[in-house]
Fold this protein.
Amino acid sequence: MVNKAELEQKLKKLAGLSPEAQAKAVKTLFTSEELKFLQQQAMHSKQPGKCIFCAIAKGEIRAKIVYDDAHFSAFLDINPANPGHILVIPKQHYEVLPQIPDELLGAYMKLLKILAAAVFEATQAQGVNIIQNNGAVAGQAVPHVHIHIIPRFENDGIKLNWDAKKVTDKQLENIQSRIVAAAQKLAADKAPKKEVDELKKSKTKIEKIKLKKRKP
Ligand code: 5GP
Ligand code: ZN
């Protein structure tokens, strides 16, 4: 059983440490039961006030910030896959990417372009991965949208590959048409009429593609 008062004290102690000291203290300060409790809390927390990335965005918890403006913040990941691994967040609390308002997304993408270039330059990386997890099952540990920019080097040992599932052409076509229908519905709900007409034209294009079988 986790003692909440004791845990609160430990969390306060942790908040006062530097990011490096925090990374070390997490391993020594908490019992495995407390760590499991905290992880579950983080995964299920819908309270922006208790979110660690909200706290970083507000400057309440320290992080090694590399970019900051009115809407976004970027900082070094406390447990980097490689040195120079950063996280780019909207300051407003959204749990998953589809919740972000459209108005913010253009600026988010432009910022990713700038920061990916900055990471390339600063680390002399040979490549970068840009990764974004949505939902605990997809590996999202912190329920506040964040995009990872990870610099990559030859033989750096990072594994992002998966075993491919075997699928038939029929299964591909089935899922293709379901995603096309869902995307068209979602886009049509938002798009002004002119764009809906454009979408209808593109639907015809998609249908043409569907009919055109690829040669093996
Ligand atoms: P996710 O698995 O949710 O996509 O990634 C969460 C990332 O946030 C992890 O890579 C983890 O190391 C990082 N992280 C978790 N807590 C903190 C923190 O308090 N400060 C910083 N800088 N990074 C954190
Ligand atoms: Zn948050």
About this structure: Residues 19, 52, 63, 75-79, 87, 133, 139-142 surround guanosine-5'-monophosphate (ligand 1) (CB under 6 Å). Residues 204-216 have pLDDT under 50 and may be disordered. The longest strand covers residues 147-152.
